[in-house]
Design brief:
alpha/beta, Quinone Oxidoreductase, Chain A, domain 1, Rossmann fold, 2 domains, 7-stranded mixed sheet
Length: about 350
């Protein structure tokens, strides 16, 4: 089968591989059809990794994917061949202390597709076939385009972030950073009943999409560094902030515009050098919550997408063939042209 394999920074190759695990009685084989290029994929492509996580051996990229079941194991009774499914890239061990506490996203032996965090690396989903435990796939329905189903993973990230924030009904919400995760946070906040949603970024193209999908205001803080100044009055106005950029200036704005007693959910992953104004956190009694991956929210994401309750179509910029994956990655790098690029396999 063909796969998109990263060897080093800017060294992405489409290769033939026989890397396919044997199918057990509780497994399924999926013909992968659609896969979204994520920010972590771009880090591997541009820089060979992020932080201390580096590509040390050839690794298939990709963890946002959907496809069709080719075969089911003898012990699988709830799935059938030909069924369309979204693939959950998280495979927790099921028996560590966090799995037993109902927090498998923090599994101490997590195998997450397309990740170089462990050695050997966990191979990703930009490949034509994938064997996995049956519980790792969720049926999406016959009428759901697989390109839409492939949004389940990033949408699940944002649904988990919304759970960290608490009730959003009638709340005033700020989203800092309007990449794919920030844009999905806008959609989730609207779906959850937010009264006002403001989104910021440093580029006009993603902000235009943010406005299109429901943000009341989309503010370019590079062109106008004081764009959020009106929201800082009286100790701030936002009940909830989703910080989706991981950038120091965005976090500073988030803390200044959050009202006293607000909740800040940190979704974007910044480096250890990002400063936090603890005096502001203390003085305004801001609850700061991290948000990491997802658990049961993956199934929720599939449900929302299948029912059309969250419309992600405006986020899909272009779909490229697997053989043209390098061009797809180069497009995805350009935030002036792309929000979400997918690969058709």
């Amino acid at each position: 089968m063909k796969a998109a394999v990263i060897h080093a920074a800017r060294d992405l190759r489409i290769e033939e591989t026989d890397l396919l695990d044997p199918m057990g009685p509780n497994d399924v084989t999926v013909r992968v059809r659609a896969g979204g290029i994520c920010g972590s994929d771009l880090h591997y492509y541009q820089d060979g990794g992020f932080g201390t996580v580096r590509v040390r051996e050839p690794m298939i990229l990709g963890h946002e994917a959907a496809g069709e079941i080719l075969a089911v194991g003898a012990g699988v009774t709830h799935l059938r061949t030909g069924q369309r499914v979204a693939i959950n890239p998280s495979r927790a061990c099921g028996h560590c202390q966090y799995c037993l506490r109902g927090m498998p996203r923090h599994c101490l032996d997590m195998r997450f597709n397309g990740s170089a965090m462990r050695m050997p690396h966990v191979q990703g989903l930009f490949r034509e076939r994938y064997v996995c435990p049956a519980h790792q796939v969720v049926p999406v329905g016959e009428d759901v385009p697989l390109a839409i189903a492939a949004f389940a993973e990033p949408l699940a990230v944002c649904l988990h972030a919304a759970r960290q924030a608490g009730d959003l009904q009638g709340r005033r919400v700020l989203v800092t950073g309007c990449g794919p995760i920030g844009a999905l946070c806008v959609l989730v906040a609207r779906h959850a009943g937010a009264r006002q949603v403001v989104v910021t970024d440093i580029a006009d193209a993603p902000l235009a999409i943010g406005a299109r999908i429901g943000a009341d205001q989309a503010l370019n803080t590079r062109e106008n560094p004081r764009a959020l100044a009106p929201f800082t009055e009286n100790k701030g106005v936002f009940d909830v902030v989703f910080e989706a950029s991981g950038a120091a200036p965005a976090l500073a704005d988030a803390l200044l515009t959050a009202r006293a007693g607000a909740t800040l959910v940190q979704v974007g992953i910044g480096g250890p050098e990002v400063p936090v104004a603890l005096n502001t956190v203390v003085a305004k009694e801001i609850a700061v919550r991290g948000s990491f991956r997802f658990d049961e929210e993956f199934a929720w994401a599939v449900e929302f997408l299948a029912a059309g309750r969250i419309d992600v179509r405006p986020l899909l910029t272009e779909t490229v063939d697997l053989l043209d994956a390098v061009r797809g990655f180069e497009l995805a790098v350009d935030r002036g042209r792309a929000m979400k690029v997918q690969i058709a396999l």
